[in-house]
């Protein structure tokens, strides 16, 4: 019973079943909105179909990548992989071991589909045949009377390497999950950041690491300069100055990395410096206001006793009496601001940089128009192990499938009064390819190519 | 689209359409003599497509690596390049174009309906990882497409040979045994390049999005596709799946790659892999 179970758990049939089930689960995860990955869509869906969502929640299908069934499948997968590697190691060891016992008669030895006989020219002795095979990167045992040759003898080790790389990926992945800190922080030009937890955006809530601490950093944002060409964002230059005075440039595809932490540029907004003054010119309130307005979406803020709705036009133009933007390039930046008090509209108007909106005895001055950047902050360890896993997997699969193993048996002997090279050959995976190669190799050696 | 790009794009489509129709004619009407002429027509279409790519490069200053249109333009180029290369190496394999040319024609038609406008390279694509990731993605798609074409050819030839009077159009093509091995070799090539593509993508994603793996729909489908071809290799090597079963598997498995490249964005709009410039 136990032996049967172990046999099944270590079988390829079981591997294929597990891989198929995992693939199915991944596919389900694409169709069922995932609570963690697509929170907004999930919540909307939950509002529309509460019973169905509750049912799928109960089955774990809305957190499918971390659901108990998926974890169980992964555990079984790695158990299966361990058992397979354990069982295959003696076979691999045996296959890479080379001994005289492998020398056999090329005419009668079983399992060699390629068999030929080549007449040898008089000046070609058996030792030279063996020498030529060695020159063709064959490891040869024996002599002209009978030899065994193998090319890419160690290829079966690549099987172990490829499958062991999965464990490295698992280990790196687990370390990264348990040490992971994830949070978002919005920083405007001129702002400093010392890694304070309360400065991270409340939504989505920062994910604290199970092991280790949040990022320990200290820098200030020197400048933020977006680049837009023909309506396409072609880059952003965010200059950060750390506490040692070193400047770091952040761009898309180029995060600020320090220790195990990365600050990845994620989002851009405008942070105008707005000052509200009363009729006497006395400042009531003023600050840089981070507005998320770059996708032509209005944003709201409060200053003094008023609330404001701001719409941003990067390249403002009046088009048939309507406010519009010619492009997404920052050629003529302009705010349209609507002012409200106690829910009633007080005023509205266009405000460029350096402009003023006057209403009800107040002045709203727009003194500067810098940008703010949202950083995706992530700290995790184990990435080097994970990348090593990727590298070994790639090397393993290339080694195993491209540098496959060829074996030959041969002997120089008389046949019908003619001295011949009698050979047999076999290879892994590619029978026709190897047979063509054997025919060319032995044809070349015997001068019959 | 740039003017000359448009001209040569259309020329290549016409050449592929004529060649695709010709290949179908050669099989149905049992006329194998036209295959080499049709291959020359495919080569002509390939030349026109290459000029279209050069014209676009000249207009935008970057290789066409982004957006659905550019993906189909460059991806189709890789598939046809692979088809012509194997046909040049072994004349018996020129018939693979019967499978790959219609596929590329559909891709080009689909791409044309997407976003062929001339746009600068988006910031997110300005990295060396783009070239590694996308280049290997297209190599794998090209190899898997050739595996599919070899599978189709195998199934047609096997059916023909089962008839009393086999269709002579298939005589030019490799034996069933060789076709069977070819399917496997293309799958292996695709699997290796797929592995490199996924690894490179994960490393790139860490710098671009901050996470090497985020269960993004395209990421997930690429994993499903990789697993499917992994299973195919295991079935062949360990369970000895050959010939008809392997051929059907190669044909069916390509659907996972097509879904990954083109299907996901049609039904899901949450992927970070928006194959469009933004």
TrEMBL record, chain A:
Instruction: Keywords in alphabetical order, please.
Output: Cytochrome c-type biogenesis, Membrane, Transmembrane, Transmembrane helix
Main subcellular location = membrane
Is Cytoplasm there in the keyword field? Answer: no
Intracellular or extracellular location(s): Membrane
The way this protein sits in the membrane is described as: Multi-pass membrane protein
Q: Tell me where the transmembrane regions lie.
A: 12-32, 52-85, 157-178, 384-403
Q: What stretch or stretches form a coiled coil here? A: none
Which Pfam families did the record assign?
ResB
Residue ranges occupied by any ResB-like domain in the UniProt entry? 12-438
Protein name from the UniProt record: Cytochrome c biogenesis protein ResB
UniProtKB/TrEMBL annotation, chain B:
Predominant location: membrane
| Protein keywords | Cytochrome c-type biogenesis, Membrane, Transmembrane, Transmembrane helix
**Ranges of residues in domain Cytochrome c assembly protein:** 65-268
Q: What is this protein called?
A: Cytochrome c biogenesis protein CcsA
Q: Name one Pfam family in it.
A: Cytochrom_C_asm
Q: Which residues cross the membrane?
A: 6-28, 40-59, 71-88, 95-113, 133-156, 182-205, 220-239, 246-268
Q: Where in the cell is it found?
A: Membrane
How does the protein's chain sit in the membrane according to the entry?
A: Multi-pass membrane protein
User: Known InterPro entries for this protein?
Assistant: Cyt_c_assembly (IPR002541), Cyt_c_biogenesis_CcsA/CcmC (IPR045062)
């Amino acid at each position: 019973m136990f032996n049967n179970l172990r046999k099944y758990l270590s079988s390829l049939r079981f591997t294929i079943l597990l891989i198929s089930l995992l693939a199915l689960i991944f596919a389900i995860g694409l169709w069922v909105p995932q609570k963690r990955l697509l929170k907004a869509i999930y919540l909307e869906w939950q509002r529309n179909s509460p019973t169905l969502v509750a049912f799928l929640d109960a089955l774990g299908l809305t957190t499918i990548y971390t659901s108990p069934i998926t974890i169980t499948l992964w555990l079984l997968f790695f158990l299966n992989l361990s058992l397979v590697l354990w069982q295959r190691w003696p076979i691999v060891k045996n296959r890479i071991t080379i001994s005289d016992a492998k020398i056999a008669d090329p005419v009668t030895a079983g399992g060699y589909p390629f068999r030929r006989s080549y007449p040898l020219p008089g000046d070609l002795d058996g030792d030279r045949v063996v020498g030529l095979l060695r020159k063709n990167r064959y490891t040869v045992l024996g002599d002209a009377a009978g030899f065994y040759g193998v090319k890419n003898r160690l290829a079966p080790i690549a099987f172990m390497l490829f499958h062991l790389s999965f464990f490295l990926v698992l280990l790196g992945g687990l370390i990264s999950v348990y040490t992971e800190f994830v949070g978002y922080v919005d920083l405007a030009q001129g702002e400093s950041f010392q890694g304070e937890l309360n400065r991270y955006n409340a939504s989505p809530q920062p994910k604290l690491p199970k092991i280790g601490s949040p990022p320990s950093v200290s820098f200030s944002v020197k400048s933020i300069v977006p680049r837009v060409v023909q309506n396409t964002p072609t880059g952003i230059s965010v200059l950060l100055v750390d506490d040692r005075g070193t400047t770091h440039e952040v761009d898309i595809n180029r995060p600020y990395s320090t220790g195990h932490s990365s600050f990845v540029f994620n989002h851009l907004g405008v942070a105008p410096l707005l000052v509200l003054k009363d009729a006497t010119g006395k400042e009531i309130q003023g600050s840089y206001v981070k507005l998320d307005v770059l996708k032509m979406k209005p944003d709201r803020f409060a200053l003094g006793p008023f609330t404001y709705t701001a719409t941003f036009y990067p390249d403002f133009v009046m088009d048939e009496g309507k406010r519009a933007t010619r492009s997404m390039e920052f050629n003529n930046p302009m705010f349209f601001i609507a002012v409200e008090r106690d829910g009633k509209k007080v005023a509205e108007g266009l405000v460029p940089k350096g402009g003023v909106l006057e209403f009800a005895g107040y002045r709203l001055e727009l003194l500067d128009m810098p940008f703010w950047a949202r950083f995706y902050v992530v700290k995790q360890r184990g990435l080097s192990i994970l990348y090593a896993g990727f590298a070994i997997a790639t090397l393993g699969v290339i080694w195993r499938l491209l540098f496959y193993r060829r074996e030959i048996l041969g002997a120089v002997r008389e046949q019908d009064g003619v001295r011949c090279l009698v050979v047999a050959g076999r290879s892994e995976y590619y029978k026709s390819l190897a047979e063509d190669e054997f025919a060319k190799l032995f044809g070349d050696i015997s001068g019959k190519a | 689209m740039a003017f000359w790009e448009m001209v040569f794009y259309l020329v290549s489509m016409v050449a592929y359409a004529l060649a695709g129709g010709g290949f179908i004619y050669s099989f149905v009407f049992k006329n194998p003599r036209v295959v080499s002429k049709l291959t020359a027509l495919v080569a002509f279409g390939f030349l026109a497509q290459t000029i279209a790519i050069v014209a676009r490069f000249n207009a935008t200053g970057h290789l066409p690596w982004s957006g659905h249109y550019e993906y189909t333009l460059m991806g189709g180029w890789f598939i046809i390049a692979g088809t012509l290369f194997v046909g040049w190496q072994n004349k018996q394999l020129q018939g693979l174009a019967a499978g790959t040319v219609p596929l590329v024609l559909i891709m080009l038609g689909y791409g044309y309906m997407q976003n062929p406008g001339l746009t600068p390279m988006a910031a997110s694509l300005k990295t060396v990882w783009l070239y590694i990731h996308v280049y290997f993605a297209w190599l794998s798609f090209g190899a898997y497409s050739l595996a599919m074409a070899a599978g189709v050819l195998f199934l047609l030839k096997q059916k023909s040979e089962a008839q009393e009077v086999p269709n002579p159009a298939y005589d030019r093509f490799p034996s069933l045994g060789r076709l069977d091995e070819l399917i496997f070799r293309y799958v292996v090539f695709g699997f290796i390049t797929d592995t490199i593509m996924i690894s490179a993508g994960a490393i790139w994603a860490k710098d671009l999005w901050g996470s090497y793996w985020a269960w993004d729909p395209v990421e997930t489908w690429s994993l499903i596709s990789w697993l499917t071809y992994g299973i195919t290799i295991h079935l062949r090597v360990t369970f000895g799946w050959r010939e008809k079963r392997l051929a059907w598997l190669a044909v069916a498995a390509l659907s996972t790659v097509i879904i990954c490249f083109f299907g996901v964005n049609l039904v899901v709009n949450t992927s970070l892999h928006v194959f469009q410039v933004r």
